[in-house]
Predict the structure.
Amino acid sequence: WQPSLWQQQTRSHSPNHSSDKTSIILTKTMVSIPTGIGFIWCCVAPLLQTVAFNNAPQSRSMSRNNGRGNSVVVFGSSTPKTDADLLPEIRDEIMEREGQLQQWEKSIRVLSDLSGSSNEEAELYLADAFRWKAWASASDMMRRYQKPVLPEAEKIREGLTWLKEGPLEMSDHQVLSNIQQHPGIYLREPDVLYRKVKGSAPRKYRDDTVLKHLIQDDPNILQVTYNCDGEGCQSECGSCWVTYANRLPSIPDL
């Protein structure tokens, strides 16, 4: 048995002083072990050496030499994309699918003019409402399951005009605030949604004045278009009056 050779080999593979110390302890232990069981330690010692190596700090594996004899730790970093960073890819995809951007750009102008938002803000609202943001944020594999569609400028105009002049009589500030919070509701034919809301609402809520009050309190109600009461569950709990009725405020004395 040659403990000095084993110790030398161990040190040559040790990444730090911690494993060197472990190796020295193992070497001294092996010297004091009777020869009869030395063979067993010959098999066990390399395993313990491996454990000592793997449990040692791994910072060196992440470092490189900076050319001046000093070790420099290198960490990977990536800057997450903002919503605005997605817009060029969205435009490219629309161009590839449709062969033109006029319809998209016209919708942006209409929304910007009627809501008082900037062109970039309007484009971001449309991207969110019509599923382009979801498509651009998805992986290549998941994009096949996304179904973005192009907005129609005239329907955008009609919807925003209805929000201001229809039974909800929203102010410009209310319209913009609701678009910011729920673009998928307030930019995709809100007048059509309202008719569904009113038709599915419990009888005590089927009044324009009452619904106006409730929607002012919770703009999300404009997408509550199901009512499982008496019809059985339709697995639309997030858009069902049965769910919402439990947390709606009392009907005001109007």
